[in-house]
Records
---
Amino acid sequence: MRTVHHLTLPRALHPGAWWLWALGMAVAASRTRNPVLLVLILAVTGFVVSARRSDAPWAHSYAAFLKLGLVVIGIRVVLQALLSTRSQGNIVLFILPEIPLPDWANGVKLGGEVTLEALLTALYDGLQLAVMLCCIGAANALASPRRLLKSLPGALYEMGVACVVALTFAPQLVTDARRIRAARRLRGRTRGSFRTTAMPVLEGALDRSVELAAAMDSRGYGRTAQVPRRQRRITGVCVLLGLLGILLGVYALLTDSMAFPLATTALAIGLLLAVGAMAIGRQRVTRTRYRPDPWALPEWLVVGSGALAAGSMITAAALGIEGLVLAGPLVIPPVPLLPVAGILLGLAPAVVAPPLQARRRELVAA
């Protein structure tokens, strides 16, 4: 009789899948100013973060983005209150002292009457931007930045290395400063000048830089294969043009500043150029990747849920479904069914993404 223990360890979802899902939810938020839909998107992202975040330091960044969103809403409302005019509404809430402005600022008002319609419009606009920020915060809370940079294509690996170094530099400085203060308190020195703290921190940073450079050189960073200069230039130009095409297509789709066929054509051409150039640029990289993150069915389901949320909102706008944009700030927000169904599909990562906390042990007897 022999007993074999099989330990199935949970794996983390690919960070690129989290970012694509979050961008899909942000696109959905950018297509509407309906507060009901915006609050629903915020609730969906918050539920997914609470269900699938890890215990890593970056996993607590969602709360910071929520606070930043509240600040954005507050600033938007305050500016609207200072600059609003009677023409923006008829229901006057209060009157602020009006500050006279010079003649060259004719048409600009600072203070005076503040209307309910103007404040509600500012509240909806600020809520839209706050929800988009929270979608990005959800990606930051769910995806490891180091694993995301490690997954960059080979053509961009130099940029990935620089970003990894930059991301680890600032937290290490904070850790060194805390360590120095703790050491000073152990020695009975409760007070210290900036120089007594800054010099040891900078010295430690320089030492780590030398050690990091030596470690990177020993692991082959910076060593590239022999590729003709002409091919390198063509690859760089294609990557740049592809990224510009992607930005132009996405901007046109989000703002309706370009015809839909033209925007989709620019986006498709940009994707083809960028993907093709990055695939060719991988020939320069001779290093191997240790334990690459898999891209399996859960990743496709997570990305698909974000794409369906964005697609439902874009489809509703193309079909002219009422409720995405309110007819007026005092109108009761309607609840269109198609966008609501698409947004609720964004809850799928809370179920299909592998949970990090669960561990399963199977006992097999032979």
Note: The two ends are 6 Å apart (CA to CA).
---
Amino acid sequence: MNYYIVIPAHNEEAFIALTLQSLADQTAVPAKVVVVDDNSTDNTSAIVQEFASKYPYIHLVQKTSEAIHLPGSKVIQAFHKGYETLDSNYDIIVKLDADLILPENYFETIINIFKSDPKTGMAGGFAYIEKNGDWILENLTDKDHIRGAFKAYRKECFLQIGTLKPAMGWDTVDELLCKFYDWKVVTDQSLKVKHLKPTGANYNKTARYKQGEAFYTLGYGFFITAIASAKLAMLKKKPFLFFDYIRGFFKAQSQKKPLLVTREQAKFIRNYRLKKMKAKLF
């Protein structure tokens, strides 16, 4: 199976060489890697060019945008800029962050997961962060969720869900739509990805409100948003984030922000979330 990778990158000179080297070292090498340099002011582009001169499947695309880091929209706009440069001769499309070290068998394993079941729409491993010299699981999500840092999609599934939404919550709505269209989301605990920069390291106060807005635009409704907000705030060990998330939800509601999903999809998502919550309680 052919796989293409798109890597949005903004000021990643400290990490991107490690990420690209881990791709070059894969037992199943990608057919194409597009790095989208999104307005970097450091040596990101020069490092990518160096790799591109050594590995013909690596390409650099330049993008200009505002320097402000807003989770979701900025990174997915950069992803789409790279995706537009690709042809359609792929079986798997991957959105990858520029601050990862992947195990050498990562994509060989991912390909085998897709090959083993034609109903698998998405597949991925788990993120690990360094703490006191040890690599520990970055435990922010359920074990059946694939982190936004490394998303691999079967082409048919990717197109059916309408590709990626340029908004915060894109890496949750993709999986929910996957399930809506009856695709499977598969995670493999043997695939340990080193995440060199903890999630949310660059987020500001505006971005914190964005999480609540994301819950609103996913069609969660207040009850599910309150539970999801409390859980996420506790996982991040920052209980007061709960109030930021709730404010973000009500702000989006008062502004009548458009949902990322249809009314039918929103109903499915609420039922799915409630079912999962009940399963954990009983």
Note: The mean pLDDT is 91.
---
Amino acid sequence: MPASVPEIGSASSLDAEAFARTVAQPCAPLVLRGLARDWPAVAAARESRQALFTYLLRFDSGRTAQAFVGAPAIGGRYDYGDGAGGFNFDRETLTLPAALARITAAADRPDLPSLYLGSLPAELHFPGFAEENTTLLLRPGVQPRIWLGNASRVACHYDTYDNLAVVVAGRRRFTLYPPDAIGDLYVGPIDHTMAGQPTSLAAGSGPDDPRYPRFEAARERALVVELEPGDALYVPKLWWHQVEATEPVNLLVNYWWDGFNAGPDAPYTTMLLAMIAIAERPAAERAAWRAFFDHYVFRPDGHPLAHLPEERHGILGPLRANYGRIRATIMQILRGG
């Protein structure tokens, strides 16, 4: 049986600094029950579907957005398929009123195509929404995104940012797998994706599927949580998560941020560069580079120059003082200097 995600009953005592230290730094999922129970958007959703849509239309900027449109046969399970582009859904560009009308129709008629609007930046599509529905857990400048649609299942994927997901309407079921389960998840292409991130081909498959024998090990490590309106879930970066919206109409607000970045350079970029520099070298050489990466980057035994006085650490001294020097050296090397 899947295990449950640890919970915290109230986050009212946490500010952004305490949240980063006690929740984000351990890099483990955590449920925050009732975090957004006082949001006006949650209150509108509790009243009725129409009240929620009326509330959202107050903030409509008039922009169009791309929607996933799924035939009734897929049951809201947006994934790879045999259709155009290799997916089992179509994409349409719609205004918010048109999208809400289609969502309403599909909610009452399961024989109609379902609709899913994902990752809409609130500041662009719903200006003013963030100011009325706030959280004190994140530093200023972290902006929310809106996810709105009918019942759906978004394929298991990861994000390269920390993620705080807040349920506003309907219910959400998250199934999570730790980052080191990647080899058991049978991940699809990294450059042919539904919405930017590669997805697991195995997650959601039936028991003992012969196509994915290694997935049984990951299945036993799954964490599952169900969220109701006002509840939130912290999903650390690189944790795999499948997201199911289980009601006819669902709305989720999420925040993405990198809680521990030292500058503009992202770990994912480093991984891609390492792929072309190391991935197809001889096995013995890869093992040698792994030892160097462990020593200088992952540091399981502590700082690589702990045996020297700090004044002799050079560019391996505090990153805040040496970030610019290291980055300049990298850029010079990449330019062939």
Note: The first helix runs from residue 16 to 24.
